[in-house]
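My main concern about presentation is that the manuscript never shows what a single data entry looks like. Each protein is reduced to its one-letter sequence and a matching series of backbone shape codes. For the editor and my fellow referees, an illustration may be useful. For illustration, here is how one protein appears when written out as sequence plus structure tokens:
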Amino acid sequence: MPIFEYECAACGQEFEKLVRQSSPAPHCPQCDSTDLRKKLSAFNAASAAPTRRSDLPAPCGSCGHPDGPGACHLH
């Protein structure tokens, strides 16, 4: 479910709203106007992947597999 940022054209209030497909049209929480402009906003994405080389497992000592011990068939 996306969260959109809006700016009210009537009063200038900026707000965020969780919008579902079945949701009614959003309205301004301050003046109740439906004359809204959707703002361009940045999104945030989380990743479970390591971001630094030091966060990666050490290579397997037997075969050198980069995913670390237990990643290959040898151990």
In short: The chain has a mean pLDDT of 77. The first strand starts at residue 3 and ends at 8. The radius of gyration is 24 Å.
